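Study this one:
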Amino acid sequence: TGGHNMQVVSLVTQSERTNQLAADVRDGKTDILTLWAAVERFASQQAGRWTRAFRESAGIEESDLMQAAFLALIEALTAWKPERGVFLTMFDFKLKSSFTAACGMRTRRDKEDPLFNRNRLICRWTLTATVISPLRIRSLILWRRRALKRSRNAN
């Protein structure tokens, strides 16, 4: 039982460390790459799982998901409120949302949204351009180009 307690302490410490790093990034005390180093292994494990699960249907590569994971980290930093829970929980939520979008899966709400139509994807990006960063826009454009190239190669 001693080993079990050691693992619990280790997990709590890791969670606290990640919370502190996230707070330091938000306060400008450290850069985001330090936080990325702390969560990259988790992101990589999740990206690997999603790649194996959706490679055939979505044509997604692990490198695509790792790019989405970094963007999810930025979104998680923006959305995270320390008083509402640990940072890793918010990161996990944003990670799943980013991976879902990257794999081309849509929620019922998305399916009913006329702006989510694949033919109008550029229009949707234009409408949200004022809300998201230029880095995100560039990444989305590059991702879309790769997706179009993959679909052309598949045909």
About this structure: Residues 80 and 90 are 6 Å apart (CA to CA). Residues 116-132 have pLDDT under 50 and may be disordered.
